[in-house]
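User: Before I run my own analysis I want an independent prediction to cross-check against. Here's the chain; please return only the structure tokens and, at the end, one sentence I can use as a sanity check.
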Amino acid sequence: MFVITVDQRGSRTGDDRVPEILRRDPPPGLIRPFDRTAGDEVQAVFECPEHLAALAAELASSGGWSVGIGVGDVDAPLPAQTRAGSGPAFVFARDAVEDAKRNRWHLTVAGASPICVHAQTAGRLLVDVLADRSDAGREAVALVADGTSQVAAAEELGISPQAMSLRLRHARWDTEPPAVDLLSHLLAAADRDV
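Assistant: Structure tokens:
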């Protein structure tokens, strides 16, 4: 099981951004939705890591959130409200988000399995890829990620196909999907290892 704890960075000087997360459509694999635990922090429980991996990297790379992923068992039955949950995965998520507040990636994976450190490394590399993207690179990746061809995306952006190809290459867009898969695979392996 996977518990994600997400804490807003700089909340004392900015607006409360928790409602943005609470309004999101629930991704597949989510078994308890995001729930505000205290102040500017939310928590959710995932049964499988496929969509958790992409979400965690997206939030950590945005610059606005510290993300902790706890891998392990949860006490059953899970209560209706996420914040009322307990068990090792919740404890690991709490420790992980505290560590994430202090590291440059703002992402930490914690659990009993030694595989967690490998999942964390994959996650942090993915965060580096996403955080290094320029606004133009993000725009280009968003277009082709929706299935638009590079030629059509270039036309929509008013740039040449060659410029589009260059933007995508600098954004390392072709690295993201396999990196998300790697993080997901390692999280699943860590969960099986407990």
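Sanity check: The domain at 2-113 is CATH 3.30.70 (Alpha-Beta Plaits).
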